[in-house]
Every structure is written in structure tokens, then in C-alpha cells.
Amino acid sequence: MSTDTTTDHYDAIVMGAGFGGLRVSIELGRLGLNYRTLEAGSGVGGVWFWNRYPGARTDSESWVYCYQFDKDLLDEYQWTDRFPNQPQVEAYLNHVADRFDLRKNIDFEAEVSSAEYDEDEGLWRITTADGRTYTCKYFIPAGGPLTASWRPSFPGLDDYQGQWLHTSRWPKEGIDVRGKRVAVIGTGATGVQVIPEVARECEHLTVLQRTPNYVIPARNHPLTADEQRAIKMDYDKIWARCREQFFAMPIPPANRMTSDLTPQEQQRILERGWETGGFRFIFETFDDTIAVPEANKIVADFVREKIRAIVHVPETAEKLAPKDHPIAGKRPPLGHYYYEAYNRENVDLVSVKENPIERISEKGIVLADGTEFEVDVIIFATGFDALTGALTKIDLRGRDGLTIKDAWADGAQTHIGVATKGFPNLFMLFGPQTPFANFPPVAEDISSWIGQAIKHLEESPDFDTMEATQEAMDAWNQHVTDLVNATVIAQGTDVHSWMLGANIPGKTHRVLFHFGGVASFYDSCQKVIDDGWSGFEFRQVAPVTAGAV
Fold first, then answer.
1. Which of 2, 320, 510, 518 is spaced 20 to 30 A from 353 at the CA atom?
2. Does the predicted TM-score (pTM) go above 0.85?
3. How far apart are alpha carbons 501 and 141 in whole angstroms?
4. pLDDT digits (tens, 9 = 90+) for 384-402
5. Quick one: which of 55, 488, 456, 524 has its CA closest to 298?
6. Under CATH, which architecture does the 151-213+333-383 domain have?
């Protein structure tokens, strides 16, 4: 542990060196600010540094899962796959850090443990787990939406004699599962990726599933030289489409509704979308899938029939076919031969919805009815305390010692996903109630907005701080609630979604994302600026009286 008690002062402190942290660091550099980026890991990458599990890939196509602000960077960087894997994304972010000389401003292995606002001085005091301290005028948490991993507190885990690990903290050296009995707990986006990879290596795999997902085939493939050239030549149109498309992806609207077509035509279009793969299956088929229950059922029925056709054992297929929530009611993962993995003789699927996991024994996993699965390795693919967890896991205190946990006790509230009342000059990069969308393009716009806000503060002689008002947060919360209620996410009998905070026991259920599309979100952010920074209160830090103690 460090014994250095010096406090270093900066204009701004950024927490996290992933996609968001690197991009906002570039913005701060352009403003000429003296900033420091604190990164818990030993390298850049954020979620792509930590999540090294086998099969980890993006669900966005590589040519838009990147930054757009620098044309030379776009032209020079070569993506090799349609959906890049973890090493490819990590390599890209390392390239960016080197190209823009960002490492000189990064402190690695600097996990933030506390951040407290000093109202008298108008400064944030930041402390890391190893005792390093910093002060700054602007604090920018950029931990990302999926930072704080979550694992159920199963009793008995300390007594387990095998190896266990969480996918979000996979060791760099990997693990050897050859000849071993493995259990994977969880079939969300991470479980869907890791299960086929582990199944190919281990002696036997037991998958413990609570809620099945609609898994869409990714159809990943290497990009040819011709495809790479065509993408680069078309980048202006691609990025323009990303700004217009609901989830910031370069996918044009289908310009058709299910109600416009016969059942035979519907099936033909869905078949083509299924073979195309990726989220194009959702967005290039019909425009009413997410909003109209009847349309959603047509698409959901199609996927269920595909599961039954792929999986050989009918009983297993039925367990894998979701029946109690609409497609896109939970985030639909992309699969890389996911359903095919259950045709392997060494893979068993166990439903733990009605017969839940009761405890971990010395030898493995015990269900409520007493069934025990003896395994050598347990892999927790149980997800994250999304969006809020990156902040609530640290001791974050604003005005009058208000903790972020107390401020959000009844559910997270923000103004445009960037600021929250009681925490001056704290600008969240992908905080609660920002868009559910392809992350890098959204991170670019939020970084630009933060840069404009800081520039406004730096140029004003009349005030030093800005923070969200309660009225603005109430209005934004009502707005995002109205938006989600107009989608299938609010429907179904078991929408146990992390997008609503429902995956974490005791967490108040509140809409954690803006589901109105990125164009609408960008317009809202710009309107705040155009209306004279509406929804924010500006203050001058009171000067210290001479001789005061």
C-alpha cells in the first residue's frame, strides 16, 4: 500500500479509462485543462480490460463500435471481424491511448474508493484504495454502465473446494477446463457467449438457467478487404445513419409493418433477417416489433420455432424458449452457436426458476429440492449492478455529506443522465437514464456535452459550479418512464430486467435507460444548452474571509 500522503490538484479527475473515460479525456485535453484519469486496472479498456472470458464479443458491428471524431483514426484502423472479440476491442483502445498520448495522464491501479465534495472550497476530494489523494474542480465518473459485477450471495461458497470465478473478473492467464465438470450460472448476454466456448473444452457442462432469452444468431465473419474499403468510403453516411437510428446503429428502418403483409410474407422477411443475423434481425425486418404487442408476438413465435428446430431434445428446447416475456422485453443477446451447444452430449440444461439454487456445497451446487450437482468449476455469469453500481459502490458524498446511495434510495434520478442534484460539478458519463444504445457514439456526444458545460463554467466570472435541479430531474424521470411504458419492455409477466434494476435484490425498480432513441436524446441535451443550460442551478463558491479559521 502506498504511504504517500501528498494531495495532487487537477482541474478535472476522470474515473475510468474505457471508451467513455478515454473519449472525455481527449475532450478535456482539447480544452487545455489539467486533468488526471484514474483507472482501477493495469491497462486501458474498462469493461474490455476486465471481461476476458472465452467468447466475449461486441454485439455492435465493429465499424461503429469505435470513435468517430477523428477521420484519420477511422481511415487508418482496420477491423478484422464483423463483431470483434475482447482482445480486438482492447487492442483498439490501446491504439487510441497511444495515438492521442493519453497514458501520460492516467494513473493505473488507482481504484477510487471515495469522492467527497468540499462545499467551502468548491472542490472534490478523491481517494483511491491504496491511499492516494487528489482534489479537483470537476469530477467525471466514466465507469460505464456495466462495471459493478453482481454475484448472488449463495451460502456455502466459502466451503466450496473447487474453483469459482465471475466472468467480469476473468484472469488474464485464463483457466483450463479440460477434463473438468463445469457449471455456468446465468444465461444472459455473457452466459450466452461463454457457454459454447466452455462446452467445447470441458468434460461436462451444467447450465443453470433462471430465465431463457431470445438469442439471435450473430453470423460473425471476417471482413474482406473489399468490405473494409467500402465501409471507409461510406463512413459519412454510416455515422449519419447512426445518429438517426434508434439504438445508434447503422441500420436503416424497415419501412414496413407486420400488419402490411401476409403471414407468408412475414415469414419470408424473418427468415432473411435470421440469416443476416445480429440486431438487423430486429430492426431490418419490421418497424413495429418493439411497440406493437401483436407484431412482437409474430417475431417471438418465429424465434421460438427456430429454437425448437435447432435443439434436438424437445424438453431442452422448451426450456430454452421464452414464454413469459416479449422479445426485446429483455435485452436479446447475440449468439455464436449458442443453441447448438445444447446438442452436445456433454451439456445439460437445468431450470432453476421453480427449483432455485439453495446453497453451494463443498462439492458443487445444491437446489431447493436437494438435488446436488458435483462440479470442479463454477462460473458466475450473473451480470452487473448496471449504471448505478459504479457510483454506489464507492463512498460518494455531495453537499452536506449527502451520499449517492441516500440520494438514490428511491431509485436513481438524473437530469439528461449526466447530473444529479446535490452533487455540483459532477458529470456522469453514461450515468442512469442515458440512452440504451450502441455505447461509443453516445459516449462521444455526452463527452462533447460535458466539454461544453465545463467550458461555460470556465469562461464565466459569476459562478463556479452547476448542478441539476429537482424539478429538472422529476421531469426527466417522468419522460423516461413514459418512454419505456410505450415499449414492450413494460409488458410481459416476467420482465426481470437489469434495465429496470430488477436483477439486484433490494434495488428500487426505476427506469435506468432512456428508451426514446438517440436522436431524441441528443435533441434533449442540445435543448438544455440552447435554453441557457435549463434545469441547472449555478453558484459562486463563497470566498473565504481573511483571517477565518
1. 510
2. yes
3. 20
4. 666 677 898 999 999 999 9
5. 488
6. 3-Layer(bba) Sandwich (3.50)
